[in-house]
Write a structure and sequence with these properties.
Chain A: Keywords: Membrane, Transmembrane, Transmembrane helix. The complex is a heterodimer of chains A (about 800) and B (about 260). Chain A is mainly alpha-helical and about 800 residues long. Chain A has two domains: about 1-190, no CATH class; about 315-790, no CATH class. Chain A has 28 helices and seven strands. In chain A, a hairpin with a 2-residue loop joins strand 1 and strand 2. By secondary structure, chain B is an all-alpha fold. Chain B is about 75% helix and about 0% strand. In chain B, helix 9 (about 195-215) runs antiparallel to helix 10 (about 230-265). The two termini of chain B are about 15 Å apart. The chains are: A mainly alpha (about 800), B mainly alpha (about 260).
Chain lengths: ~800, ~260
């Protein structure tokens, strides 16, 4: 490597040949190998020798593309091959060889990060013709010695400039969105392309070559500047937050100056050639060109600088403040959890144990593990699996507790089994397809001689969904069958919800077109029914709010009334959520009911085994963490993931007939539907269902003290839930802060950040909403604390 | 007691030696390892460990009247697949891949885990051993009451049955019933009584915790062959088992010293 006349110094992972990128050496092969040379971005410009660069770059032999490793490149002596065929009429007469990597790497083989080692890479460019000495020897070059002790000059270019430079060399239009500048050193390799036309004055041939090159370069820069200007204008017009107007005016001015001078120059050049000077190699013209090139270069440099400052530089102060606020919120959460603890202690000084239990440590450890997992991109990619792993671990811990307590073994095993079933159905692509085909994937029935397209197998998913809906309705009726103060509302809420379930079934029947209904009727049914369901859900929520406004006093059977409120709230949301989720909806809803029930029961187990007295202990964090992890798992079970292509956009159009879709598109309505689909089972239902974690610890007719204790416990549950979400989001934010220059920032970290932050905001909003809804309006200090905490 | 101490140390050393031997055999004689040939290696380790575990623990029982040697062996052999099933279930719940191509790996891994943890299935005999050991100091009855403080109520009912030779007629189901109680006591409550139980309890916990930790590198994008299921999990389990064994030996030594002190006083 590094030969005198045709230096070939490069190691990287991409070969660029004739404008096409073809995958060069595999990354695996390169990993861990010490790279030769350093990792800076180098343009190695050959020393003066016999060389003329050419504009049309021919395709290099395909064996170059097939080379396994760049070391082979030198073994085959590509340079020799090229040189041998570089004579007039040779295959590589007009060849320019450019080899570059898309990124560097650290000595450990890490890449993708923001360090200079990872960001900077090598670039090798070779022309088989002599570059112009005066052009190719730019100022920003350092001289190094190659392995043979021969001096070579090395310089660097911005990767931003690469695309436009190659476009200029190839003579293709500049990429519209590129704001790079054609690099003069790389472009200088093309010098001499035009000399083939030949000049008659041998005395100043070199001079006129230079002039010609400069003329060309100035032309290219003119087009380059025009394209960049056009892009900046388009961007400023269309962008919400464009560039500052004074900066734009400054750029405008620079461009106008350069342009004005250029038009004058063009006028001059239109004059007869002989006026420019025959013998005296017109230094004036060269100076003119030099000035012109500088004017364009300055303009382009200003654009780059402005764009860098607006697009790629982070406001570290604001970032630090944001992170500080997040951390502060964690402490506020902790403070209020502690404060409710103290309140409990105040009312029950003898029973509350101030010790930090083993379970709390365990829970903290699990949350911390989940948080820390967000610091690595691999764990973010497999977040669903990690959450499932941790949820499974809590399930096994519960199993252990239930074995040792000899109670509720059934619930513990059910929880694990349900988790397993959900996982299997997710992994087999259940969310994307229907239930039946998911099971087909696991058990290939074809081998058993059963036809997959048989009517029975097609109907299975529908039957499962229908059965789940029926079971849900029964569960609802059962849970509401207690003794209530307001019988009328019970029948109303129950009836409305079950009617909605019935409508969902009708909707699906119409959708699958089983009955062969006329198209028009079907269309009306398909758009009308979902709207009725949404309206019923909304109406129930309004009624609930009205009831909350009317219900001033705490009922005698406070616990029951709280349970009723929670169940009604959940059931008001459920038809909408189920409908939007599609066929998987009922099954997911049923699974979450079963999972939630197991978590609640297992939480009771701990309370009862710890002491016999009722509901006076501080809140046990394990069920809350399970509740939270289960919600996270449900997010992934329903076929979402933390990326924008993980959103199920189809869900936003549930209830829209396809022919009317574009007429009726309403951004806000569709956005609400999409948010309900995305966050329905993972945020809305779990948080609104939080009181269920507390209620069952208390007797049906609580006395005043117990009532206060219940409310304090509920506040703690909500606070702990908020704390868990805040902790994980804080870790995500820290991770994004660290990795803000990472290669995968747009593909992975930024979407994760957006999802987590939106999730946190929604969580906090829902916690506030729950505090308002579930806490009686006239009450103790605790709830005022709770509200003020939020 | 001192003799039982040295016996326990010997037992744990034997386990560690057998584990080392199986790795040595795999590496030097068959020239396979967990990474290149996970299934044969896991099978080999299980094959070496299983008979040693079952036979050794069955031998340790000191009252052949109540529990014959072959009965203990039979129980161990029957316990193996049950333990394996539980382990496989746990692994799949936590996210082990499901599929025909992973089936064999999961089976062998769970067998190995079962060997590491199933010793408890033979505990019934060993509890009787303990009672006899206690009876060296006093009467069997005092030994019984001494133990019953730490043992579940179900066992207390069961013990007189053993002593009154009902144990001879107890069907296999109740044998398992009693084993379940021991299992519950050791694994759910983590209350080992006596030095021998430390040797069972701590390494078994170590193996499970090691396997849990061993699963963490699996999602990383290092593209190493050992990140495959169940290689790193097996490594974690073996490491955890070994650490547990060493720790339990330490426990046994400390316990023995303390008991000797008490005796001397």
């Amino acid at each position: 490597m590094g030969q005198g006349e045709g230096p070939l110094i490069f190691l990287g992972s991409m070969l660029l040949l004739d404008g096409k990128l073809c995958k060069g050496p595999t990354k695996g092969k390169l990993r861990g190998k010490p790279k030769r040379g350093n990792h800076r971005s180098h343009t190695v410009v050959s020393d003066p020798g016999p060389c003329i660069a050419l504009m049309d770059v021919s395709v290099l032999a395909s064996r170059l593309c097939n080379c396994q490793n760049l070391e082979d490149l030198s073994d085959w002596d590509v340079v020799d091959i090229l040189k041998n065929q570089s004579g007039p009429g040779g295959l590589h007469e007009n060849t320019l060889l450019i080899v570059m990597g898309d990124h560097g790497q650290t000595l450990n083989g890490d890449h993708g990060g923001g360090t200079s080692e990872e960001v900077e890479t090598s670039l090798f460019a070779m022309s088989l013709k002599t570059p112009l000495v005066s052009v190719s020897s730019g100022q920003n070059k350092s001289r190094i010695l190659d392995s043979d002790g021969k001096e070579i000059r090395v310089s660097s270019i911005q990767q931003l400039d690469f695309a436009v430079t190659v476009a200029a060399l190839l003579g293709v239009p500049f990429p519209f969105g590129s704001i790079g500048r054609v690099n003069h050193e790389l472009y200088a390799l093309s010098a001499g392309t035009w000399s083939q036309r030949g000049t008659d004055a041998p005395s100043c041939k070199n001079q006129s070559n230079l002039e010609e090159w400069m003329q060309n370069y100035a032309n290219v820069l003119c087009i380059n500047s025009w394209q960049v200007k056009r892009y900046i204008n388009t961007y400023s017009e269309s962008s919400v937050i464009g560039f500052p107007s004074e900066d734009l005016a400054h750029l405008e001015n620079m461009y106008a100056q350069a342009q004005h001078n250029w038009s004058n120059r063009v006028k001059e050049s239109l004059l007869p050639q002989n006026e420019v000077g025959n013998g005296s190699c017109s230094t004036l013209l060269i100076d003119d060109l030099q000035w012109q090139i500088e004017a364009y270069s300055n303009f382009l440099a200003s654009v780059t600088e402005l764009a860098r400052s607006k697009w790629t530089e982070f406001d570290l102060l604001i970032m630090a403040i944001g992170l500080g606020i997040l951390l502060l919120s964690l402490f506020i959460h902790l403070y209020f959890i502690e404060r409710t603890n103290n309140l409990q202690q105040f009312s029950y000084p003898s029973i509350v144990d101030a010790k930090i239990s083993l379970r709390s440590i365990l829970v903290l450890l699990l949350v911390a593990i989940r948080g820390c997992s967000f610091l690595s991109n691999s764990y973010i990619l497999t977040e669903g699996k990690v959450a499932n792993y941790l949820l499974g671990t809590t399930g096994i811990i519960n199993l252990r507790y239930s074995v040792s307590g000899k109670k509720m073994l059934k619930e513990a095993v059910t929880f694990l089994l349900m988790n397993l079933v959900l996982r299997i159905s997710t992994e087999s692509g259940f969310s994307k397809q229907t239930v039946g085909s998911a099971f087909m994937d696991i058990f290939p029935l074809r081998f058993l001689g059963i036809n997959e397209n048989h009517l029975i197998w097609v109907l299975i998913p529908d039957v499962i969904s229908l059965l789940s809906l029926i079971v849900l309705a029964i569960v609802l009726c059962k849970s509401m069958s207690g003794d209530y103060c307001w019988r009328f509302s019970k029948y109303l809420f129950n009836g409305a919800t079950i009617f909605s379930y019935f409508l969902i079934t009708v909707h699906w029947v119409l959708e699958s077109n089983l009955l062969g209904m006329p198209l028009l009727l079907e269309g009306i049914g398909r758009s009308l029914i979902p709207r009725i369901i949404y309206t019923i859900g909304f109406g129930l929520l309004v009624l609930l709010t009205a009831r909350w406004l009317l219900d001033k006093e705490m009922a005698l059977n406070f616990t029951q009334s709280m349970l009723q409120r929670t169940v009604v709230m959940l059931s008001a949301w459920s038809p909408t959520v189920i409908l939007i989720m599609g066929r998987q909806g009922p099954l997911i809803a049923l699974s979450s009911v079963i999972g939630g029930w197991c978590i609640i029961r297992l939480g009771l187990l701990e309370k009862k085994t710890r002491d016999g007295t009722v509901g006076v202990l501080t809140t046990d964090p394990l069920p809350v963490v399970q509740w939270s992890f289960f919600a996270v798992c449900l997010f992934f079970y329903t076929g979402h993931w933390c990326a924008f292509d993980g959103l199920r956009y189809g869900a936003a159009f549930t209830g829209q007939v396809s022919s009317l879709l574009f007429d009726e598109f309403n951004l806000i309505r569709q956005a609400i539907l999409l948010s309900i689909d995305t966050f329905g089972v993972s945020h809305i239902l779990p948080i609104l269902g939080c009181p269920l974690l507390v209620i069952f610890h208390y007797p049906q007719y609580p006395r005043g003290r117990e009532r206060n204790s219940l409310l304090a416990n509920l506040a703690q549950v909500l606070l702990i839930y908020g704390l868990i979400t805040s902790i994980t989001t804080t870790f995500t934010v820290i991770c994004v802060t660290i990795q803000r220059r990472h290669l995968m920032v747009w593909g992975l970290f930024a979407p994760k950040f957006v999802f987590d932050v939106v999730g946190l905001i929604l969580t906090d909003f829902l916690i506030c909403f729950s505090s308002l809804h579930y806490f009686p309006r006239v009450g103790s200090d605790t709830q005022r604390d709770q509200i003020s905490a939020k | 007691m001192a003799s039982s101490n040295s016996r326990d140390i010997t037992v744990s050393t034997a386990f560690l030696l057998s584990l080392t031997t199986s790795f040595y055999v795999a590496h030097n004689i068959y020239s396979i390892n967990l990474i290149s040939h996970p299934i044969p290696t896991l099978a080999l380790i299980s094959l070496v460990q299983t008979p040693i575990t079952i036979l050794l623990f069955s031998l340790l029982r000191q009252n052949p009247q109540q529990c014959s040697y072959w009965k203990a062996v039979l129980r161990g052999v029957l316990g193996l697949p049950i333990g394996a099933f539980l382990m496989a279930f746990g692994a799949i719940v936590l996210g082990a891949p499901i599929g025909i191509q992973y089936l064999e790996k999961t089976i062998y891994w769970s067998l190995l885990m079962s060997v590491f943890t199933e010793d408890a299935f033979e505990l019934r005999c060993r509890l009787e051993t303990m009672l006899l050991l206690n009876s060296e100091d006093g009467s069997p009855i005092s030994g019984l009451t001494q133990c019953s403080d730490q043992i579940d109520e179900g066992l207390i009912l069961f013990y007189p049955a053993n002593f009154t030779r009902f144990g001879e007629f107890v069907p296999a189901a109740s044998v398992y019933g009693s084993s379940w109680k021991d299992w519950q006591r050791l694994f759910a409550n983590t209350k080992p009584t006596g030095s021998l139980e430390y040797i069972i309890c701590i390494p078994a916990h170590g193996a499970i915790i090691g396997a849990w930790l061993g699963a963490w590198p699996m999602p990383l994008d290092w593209e190493r062959p050992w990140q495959e299921w169940p290689i790193c999990v097996s490594y974690g389990a073996v490491a955890g088992y070994t650490v547990g064994m060493v720790v339990s030996m330490g426990f046994v030594l400390v316990l023995g010293k303390r008991q000797r002190h008490v005796k001397n006083d």
